[in-house]
Amino acid sequence: MWKWLHPYAKTQNAYQLCERLLPWFVISAFISFTVGMIWGLAFAPSDYQQGDSFRIIYIHVPSAILSMGAYSAMAISAFIGLVWQVRTAFMAMIALAPIGAVVTFIALFTGAAWGKPMWGTWWVWDARLTSELILLFLYLGVISLYASFEDKQQAGKAAGVMALVGVINLPIIHFSVEWWNTLHQGASITKFDKPSVAPEMLWPLLISILGLALVMGAIFIRRLQNEILRRELHRPWVQSLVTQTKRK
Amino acid sequence: MRIALKAIFARDLALAYRQRSELMQPMMFFILVISLFPLGIGPNPATLQKVGPGVIWVAAILSSLLGMERLFKDDYNDGSLEQIMLSATPLPFVALVKVFTHWLTSIVPLLLLSPLLALFLNLTEPMYWALLSTLLLGTPLLSLVGAIAVGLTLGLNRGGVLLALLLLPVFIPLLIFATAAVEAASLQLPYTAQLAIIGAMFLISLALAPFAIAYALRVSQN
Fold it and tell me: Keywords in UniProt for this one (chain B) (predicted)?
């Protein structure tokens, strides 16, 4: 059933797949991100209590959701790499890590900027905020562990183990709202049967989430290609690729 | 296999006993960090009682990090780790024994010191018992999870700071639950729920960490 996946463990095939996928990702990311942002920031109705300042939700919520999504993706590729000894999976993992760290930072920053007018403070030691901060630390730990090894093969494995250890943190992030439930509001869009967000606000939000996911996907594809090229410099196919582009 | 494990246990105990001054360092650090707090935030007994459990736990985490590198470093440097890995004894069991010995020699002294520190920070008796039970359940978890990161950073020259960077975020949930338990105890509330969660985390790490440590050692040994 999974046999079609096997060729992509070879870096050359993965590189070519990335090359084919990239334009689609770039186009769809551009469209959906622009639509989501303009709709959300300019046209969605303003909140009856929070006024226009609630509009930061169209950046805050997508980045918060995707910061965890990126970590899961990173951990899954680390798992694939460790279990099935796939080198490309480690490259995917380390290509994802900085993207996830940046998105986590955006979520924290926009959250702080939103918290100032709404809660009257930049930062509270609320469970959700704290676990998002821990998530950032986990990303930085994986990145710095990977960076401190000379041998990148070894680095991938070590960082992969660390990423999997950090995965314990993800359920804690998820359930922290129910466990400690302090200042941060509960989830409002995952209640699929009856969301507590009005549809005029929900749609731009969903499109923003999709848009940011696609943007991250496009960046990830490019970073994965770069990582493959950097690691496989000595391979003939990379060298012929370089000479071809030079001739153009 | 049992003979080999026993031999490793006896050897590590003997090694620890012969390096007593090195074992003393985390304990000294533990006491010093905790005596800095009353000096830093003022000697008001009520304040000290409020921050006490958290301070003791943070100091325990930091000083266990200090001694953590000793876990495999010497064996790695003199090559005996390689010999152990080549032997027929399953590496996860060896790792478990080594972590247990390390916990026994460098963490249990900290636990024995804790009544003194509870006095320093003006903890009440129920708070002290809660603190001790969270420490008893939580510190093996520190050692088990910490050993994974120690294994991963073995081959690096400057592992120390990186080790803290990797481990501190992972320990935060433990810190939260442990201090929540002591706080519940200070209000005369039951704290079995927090203990149960710490216990669950400990059991999960006991089941999984030996394999992760073994894998980490293999990665480092290449």
Answer: Cell inner membrane, Cell membrane, Cytochrome c-type biogenesis, Membrane, Transmembrane, Transmembrane helix, Transport
